[in-house]
Specification:
25 strands, 12 helices, six-stranded mixed β-sheet, alpha/beta, 510 residues, 28% helix, single chain
Length: 510
């Protein structure tokens, strides 16, 4: 059996202007109504025409039961009457008063108690509802759980990778544009010998000292001749004595209508502009024979075909790799002007973290996965990784570690504590003592990204989840570090090369 009404008669409450009022509430399917009376006798008179013929549950708040006139409730048929307490609803009453400052705590308690009793008796029956509200021995969580929700939750998406509603999410491209606009190189530049420059970023263009190839040469082993002396069909050219090889040029000239033995990389002798591949020829005594026609300049490389003398071989902002070292060496470049290597500090935070997998970990702890991953990423990107170790969730320890790190590195990567939770001490500390810009990136995994300056050193606060930390490092830290290391110009250099290639394709000009 359920009841159609729940009535709560509260304790008296002193008024600011003097006197006292008793707070009461009635809960029905239509909602909850508050009213105040001078005494419980007035309350019963008011309720006389409000109580429906249906069964009713009346809760009298502890401390108010004595104020009821004798026999006040005797005339109520089908009424369940019991002493109740609203103390379990104190946190909910405080929240209700915060939302409605005109409401007193006592009014809120009585209103919420009526609501909770009505909802609970409909679900579990009046006896269970009164048992939950019984003073000193009730079930406070059952009473609080029976309250109706006062805010509408976001619609469930059943997708942990969906973007939560009501947050201003920053698109990835916009976040990258902000980084490009805000960051600049922080390292000085010096002349560096080429054999020590691997992984460094050029601070100025590397210029070719001479062309590569320096002269027109042969691309294959075969026989060289003047194209004008050949035609269609079988060709027979007498061979002159001697040969041209790489590092052993032929000193003389090759007469028109004659051919010379030539090897890969050899400078084309005077009178030679075309080479036929050895596999496409046969020897006829002292002559070479092959089928024509042969394309003019076939199997030859023009002088400066790779890079011409005085041209830019590699542009400022380019990170030097093994093939780049080969090219610069071939062009006679012995040293380059490059930025010093960026020093990247990596710090892990969290009470749950055990710094080394060699150390024992309890069930509530996890071994540090982020620090070795981030250190190796920094190394693979060409920077100097600096292990800053692990620190517990202690603001003072984190502050000391950041201050020490700022004196010896150029940028700091932290993992954990980048969001806005109770234990997110990194972002809280950066907000309080640094210059924090906390971004909510439209990217999952990897949404929280804390950016700050600590003693003038950039700090990138990554999420604690290893996959989220990896995603944020690859998408944001890598391009940001490139800008700090001097690689921001590399994008312009790539654009110049793309435009040059487009121009060649459109005009056919080399």
């Amino acid at each position: 059996m359920t009841v159609g009404q729940v009535i709560v008669l509260g304790r008296s409450e002193s008024l600011p202007e003097g006197g006292a009022k008793i707070c009461c509430a009635i809960a029905t399917v239509d909602g909850v109504r508050n009213f105040q009376v001078a005494n419980l006798t007035d309350a019963m008179e008011k309720l006389a025409d409000k109580i429906a013929p249906d069964p009713v549950l009346i809760g009298v708040e502890a401390g108010a039961h004595e104020e009821l006139p004798e026999g006040a409730l005797a005339g109520l048929r089908d009424a369940m009457i019991a002493e109740v307490s609203a103390d379990a609803l104190t946190p909910d009453a405080a929240a209700l008063c915060a939302a409605d400052p005109a409401m007193t705590v006592q009014q809120a308690k009585v209103r919420l108690l009526a609501e909770a009793l009505f909802n609970l008796q409909r679900a579990e029956g009046p006896e269970a509802a009164l048992q939950a509200a019984r003073p000193g021995a009730g079930h406070p969580m059952a009473l609080r759980a029976a309250l109706s929700a006062r805010t509408v939750p976001p619609r469930l998406k059943d997708d942990c990778f969906a973007m939560p509603q009501g947050v201003d999410w920053v698109p990835v491209d916009e976040a990258l544009d902000r980084l490009r606009a805000a960051l600049h190189p922080v390292k000085p530049a010096h002349l560096v010998p080429l054999d020590q420059a691997s992984g460094l970023i050029l601070s100025s263009d590397a210029i070719a000292r001479r062309s590569n190839p320096p002269r027109q040469n042969s691309a294959v082993d075969g026989y060289g001749f003047a194209h004008a002396a050949t035609g269609a069909g079988p060709q027979r050219l007498p061979l002159i004595e001697g040969r041209a090889a790489a590092g052993q040029p032929f000193d003389g000239a090759v007469p028109a209508g004659a051919a010379i033995r030539i090897l890969t990389g050899a400078i084309l002798p005077q009178g030679v502009d075309t080479v036929v591949l050895e596999e496409d020829t046969a020897l006829d005594g002292a002559a070479v024979v092959f089928d024509g026609p042969v394309k003019p300049f076939a199997n030859t490389r023009k002088a400066g075909e790779d890079v011409a003398e005085g041209e830019t071989a590699l542009s400022a902002g380019h990170r030097l790799r093994a093939p780049d070292l080969a090219l610069l060496s071939a062009l006679g470049v012995a040293e380059v002007r490059a930025f010093d290597r960026l020093r990247v500090g990596v710090l892990s935070t969290g009470d749950e973290i055990v710094a080394s997998p060699a150390d024992p970990a309890q069930l509530h702890q996890i071994w540090d996965a982020n620090r070795p991953m981030l250190l190796d990423l920094a190394r693979s990107w060409g920077y100097a990784p600096v292990d800053l170790g692990h620190v517990r969730d202690d603001p003072a320890e984190i502050e000391a570690r950041l201050t020490g790190a700022a004196a010896k590195v150029d940028v700091i990567l932290t993992s954990g504590g980048a969001s806005a939770g109770d234990e997110d001490h990194v972002s809280a500390l950066l907000r309080r003592k640094g210059t924090l810009s906390s971004w909510r990136i439209a990217l999952k995994p990897g949404r929280p990204l804390a950016l700050a300056l600590w003693d003038g050193v950039p700090v990138f606060g990554l999420p604690g989840n290893p996959v989220a930390a990896l995603v944020c490092a690859l998408v944001f830290a890598r391009p940001a570090f490139s800008l700090l290391a001097g690689g921001g110009l590399a994008r312009k250099a790539r654009l110049r090369r793309c435009r040059r290639l487009q121009q060649i394709q459109e005009t056919g000009a080399a």
